[in-house]
From TrEMBL:
Organism: Haloechinothrix salitolerans
InterPro entries: AF2212/PG0164-like_sf, DUF1905
Protein name according to UniProt: DUF1905 domain-containing protein
Length: 87
């Protein structure tokens, strides 16, 4: 199964804060698990293996690594469409 969603690229505060996009609750519910869930993510011209990760407050996110941001000319605050499938 595959899901697509659009969100804003955010950055966790603190040293080395990750850039990420929140997974909407209706999709996040598909990943009911306390840990990291392996996925394949796609953004624009990029595809990579990563995980849906818990934030600690019950919500989930997908990290958007630097190579993906650079290849797609993305930065904090930009809207982005993410497609994920279990990996």
């Amino acid at each position: 199964m595959q899901w697509s969603f659009t969100g804003e690229i955010e950055r966790f505060t603190g040293l080395g804060g990750w850039y990420h996009v929140d997974v909407p609750d209706d999709i996040g519910d598909e990943f009911e698990h306390d840990g990291f869930i392996p996925i394949i993510a796609e953004v624009g011209v990029s595809r990579w293996k990563t995980s849906v990760m818990p934030k600690g407050d019950g919500s989930r996110f997908v990290a958007i690594k630097a190579a993906v941001r650079k290849a797609n000319d993305l930065d904090e605050g930009d809207p982005v469409t993410v497609t994920i499938r279990r990996g």
